[in-house]
Amino acid sequence: MNFIYPAVFYKEEGKISVIFPDLGNLATFGDNVADAMHMAADACGLYLFTALRDGEPFPPPSTLSEINPAAILKDVEMEAAADDAFVNMVLVDMAEYAKRHSDKAVKKTLSIPMWLNTLCEEKNINFSKALQDALLTKVLSL
Questions:
Q1: Which domain holds residue 72?
Q2: Does residue 80 share a domain with residue 132?
Q3: What pLDDT digit, counting tens, does each position of 76-106 carry?
Q4: What is the mean pLDDT of the chain?
Q5: Residue 59 DSSP symbol
Q6: pLDDT of residue 142
Q7: Is the confidence at residue 125, as pLDDT, over 90?
Q8: Residue 7: burial class (beta carbons within 10 Å; 0-12, 13-18, 19+)
Q9: Does residue 123 sit in helix, strand or coil?
Q10: Are the CB atoms for 22 and 67 separated by under 8 Å?
Q11: CATH of the domain at 80
């Protein structure tokens, strides 16, 4: 399911900053407009994914014509950036976002030596947690 929210894009300190007025002034930034658009979609997706996971309703999106960039930037004390600011709709495909960012557990089958299994069970080691910790250590060291 797709969701679209308006965002205000504006220049700030060599970056393009983004604010979502409908999402509690959720903010992000990018190195250029394309990067800012990518970051905006990711930030919006995270906001909506968290709301969905927590059972909270999504705020209704405003229309483009309802968003006044100068007023939004004044609220966040960035009124000097209003001259170059623009509003654009940001699309989030929640099904795709959830696939990429879900923390749902996935069952894996693996084999370990019996002697190691016995030792781990004697010490009440949580196999799933131990494997997750080991995998994270391995991935983060690459």
A1: 2-101
A2: no
A3: 898 888 899 999 999 999 888 888 887 777 8
A4: 91
A5: P
A6: 66
A7: yes
A8: buried
A9: coil
A10: no
A11: 3.30.160.250
DSSP 94: H
Task: Name the domain count of the chain.
Answer: 2
Give the Cα separation of 136 and 134 in Å (integer): 5
Same domain, 113 and 62: no
The SS3 assignment for 20 reads: strand
Report in angstroms the alpha-carbon separations of 95 from 73, 79, 104, 138. 32, 36, 14, 29
CA atoms within 13 A on the CB side of 61: 16
- Look-up: residue for tokens 């030596």? 113
pTM: 0.71
Q: Are residues 42 and 111 in the same domain?
A: no
Are 95 and 37 part of one and the same domain? yes
* Same domain, residue pair 48 and 117: no
Question: Are residues 81 and 133 part of one domain?
Answer: no
